[in-house]
Model the fold of this input.
Amino acid sequence: MTIQNSKTLGPFSLNEICHEIGAVLSDSRKGSELIKGVASLQTATREEVSFLENRKYYKYFCNTRANAVIVHRKVPRAAPKGVTLLFSDNPQKAFALVSRMFHPLEEPLNPGVDAGAWLHQDCLIGKGSEIQNGAKIYERVQIGKNCLIGANTIIGKDVIIGDDCYIKSNVTVSHCHMGNGVSVFPGARIGQPGFGFAMEASGHTQVPQIGKVVIGNNVRIGANTTIDRGALRDTIIGDGCMIDNLVQIGHNVQLGSNCVLAGQAGVAGSTILGDFVVVGGQTAIAGHINLGNGVTIAGKSGVTRDLKGPGIFGGIPAVPIRQWRRQVGMLSNLVKRRLKRGRI
Done:
């Protein structure tokens, strides 16, 4: 059942949807039928579209009540009675694009500065931007066009923010240059000092952190994530990176383009990730190491050395995923044998 809210758009015809996602209808005569929303295979109605990406859900596909289902071009052409198929090379991406037709990622802006916001006289705010109640923007800040600065968010001095950026509520941004199309979710902390100090028996001496955080274009930074400023060189987040909630990125870290970091992952200082690196949830990556292009790390792993990509790794310490699975299997079998012999 479609849930209507202030952001729901539509309806859209199947022809309009196919044009948007580059799909092909199984029955061109159905192109004028209207779709009012998106839903899962299990819950979709005759007014909604769904998708099939994983074979595990084929049983739900066979019994779905959806008007239309986005499927891969290689899926057998047979469909449940009354269901129109939309053939796509990437059903998951196609469904994401359809979902955005009905539910845009962001609310429309209400351009202007709320009376409860505080702006330093020496800051620049681009045309069409919205500054919400309680926000504070300090000297020499530059904010581009069509941006949102959410309630109670603080933008420190000399920060530069590009166009079309959405900085949600209760965020702090300092010592940062940010590109275009960046989304930062509530509670994130960007540009605070990194965790750097010289250790000795008489006590620890903090090292000044004098670098910045440089964020590329079209980056997503999740709620309550922290990205430390560099110590000497800058901390860099490449174009297209997707960072989940509760991720810690240490000083001097460099992420290549289109990296994905899942929740509670941590990257220690001065580590370099190549392009398209994927880090599973609760994974810890030690400092001063390099992960090559296309490396994928399974969740709850510990990475302690350089890894060449592409490849999938897992375990503590992280090793090629097949090796890790063999290790787990051998250990499990060893325990079973000892239990049988009464040695444990």
About this structure: Residues 1-5 have pLDDT under 50 and may be disordered.
